[in-house]
C-alpha cells in the first residue's frame, strides 16, 4: 500500500515534546538517536522548538532539521502522535550521522494515518480451513500451551524442538531473550533448539570462540589509532555506514592503510582510495572460496619474517603442542603457534596461484599488517563478515584470521582486533541452558 509523504511541509517538535533515547535496531553498530513525540494537534515554531535551533535560518546538511524520512504519525498510549527521529549529535558511536536505514526508522513504523507498514500483523494468526485467520492473544497462547503439553504427555520433553530469535539491541533484546531463555531452557527443559539464521543453537564463528577469542573484541575508537584496517569479505560503507564514516575514515585520515579482501570492487574500496589515497589502499580481489589460502600465506610470511609479537604469544596463547584435538566438534586442531604452522604453511607463490592475486600483493598485505615500525608493534584491525562466515570451510577460515591477530598481538590491545562486522547488537542475555550443548559445538 502506497502512502502520501508530506514533502511540502512538516511539523516542528514543540518544547514540551517527549524525548526518548533510542538505538537504531538495524545493524551491529548501535547508533544513537533522539525520538520526539507530541500531540497531533500541536507543534512548535521556527524559533521556539524542542530542537533549540532557529529553523528560519538555512540548516547544514548534517543538521537536525526534519526530513520526510524522519517523520510519521503513530499510536502512543492509544492516541495518534507525531513522531520525529533524529540522529543523536552527542552519541560517540555515530556523532549525529544517520545511515540510510536508521534515518528511516520513523517512516518505517506502522501508521494508520500515513499508511506505512500496513503489512505488519496486528493480531496472531492461526491456520484454519486452509487459510490464516486472525485470533486473540489468549486463544493463541492457549493453543500453543495445549499443543506443547500434548507433545510432552504423548512423548517427552525431548520431543520439543524450538526455532527462536537471538537478536538483541534496541527492540527489547535483553528482556525478550531472557524471557524466551527462561521459558525454553528452565521451564520446558528444551534440548533441541535453533536460532534465527542457523540450524543449531551456536555461534556463526565457532572457531573464534573455541580459540578463546570473543567475536567482538575491540572498541570503535581502535579504528582511529590503528596502522592498518583490513576488511575481509565485508562492505562496511554500505553495511556498517557510520562505523566507516565516523571511525574508519578518521583512522585513514590519521595515516592508517586500508586493505580490502573481496572478489568485487565495492563502494567501500572507492571511498578508502579517496580518503587514504590509492598508494595506501590495497585490493586483494581473490577468487571466491580461497580466503583460507590467502590468510595462511599472510600468516606464513609474518612468521618467517619474525614479525610475530613473541611476548604476547608467550603470555596469551597455548604453549606446547595441541590443546584440543581435531574431532567432529572441531574441524581443526587447536594448540600452539608452532603446532599450527605445521599444517597451515603455504608460500605466497602457492597462494597466488590459488587465489588469483599476485604474490607481491600478498607480501605487501603481510607487511602492512605486521611489519614493525621502528621496533614498535604494528597495530592492525581485521574485520570479517558474511563473505567468510557463510563461505566454504568457515571454521578453519575464520580461525586463520584469528591466527593472524594472535600471532601479531592484535587482540585485546589498543588499535587491534579480529572482529566480525555484521549481525545485530549483542544486547541479550539468557539464563543457563544446561540441557543444550555448549553453543560453539558443531553437532
Structure description:
A hairpin with a 2-residue loop joins strand 3 (71-76) and strand 4 (79-87). The radius of gyration is 26 Å and the shape is flat. Helix 8 (291-304) crosses helix 12 (359-370) and helix 11 (348-355) packs across helix 12 (359-370). It is built from 14 helices and 15 strands. It is α/β, with parallel strands linked by helices. The chain has a five-stranded parallel β-sheet, sandwiched between helices. Strands 1-2-4-3 form a four-stranded antiparallel β-sheet, with no helix packed on it. Among the domains are: 18-104, Immunoglobulin-like, CATH 2.60.40; 206-420, Dimethylsulfoxide Reductase, domain 2 (3-Layer(aba) Sandwich), CATH 3.40.228.10.
Q: At the first level of CATH, what is the class of the domain at 206-420?
A: Alpha Beta
Would you list the SSEs in sequence order as H and E? EEEEEEHEHEHHEHHEHEHHEEHHHEHHE
State Rg: 26 Å
Uncertain residue segments: 437-443
Beta-strand portion reads 15-25%
Largest pleated sheet:
5 strands, parallel
Q: Average pLDDT value? A: 91
Q: Using DSSP, what is the number of strands?
A: 15
The CATH topology of the domain at 206-420 turns out to be: Dimethylsulfoxide Reductase, domain 2
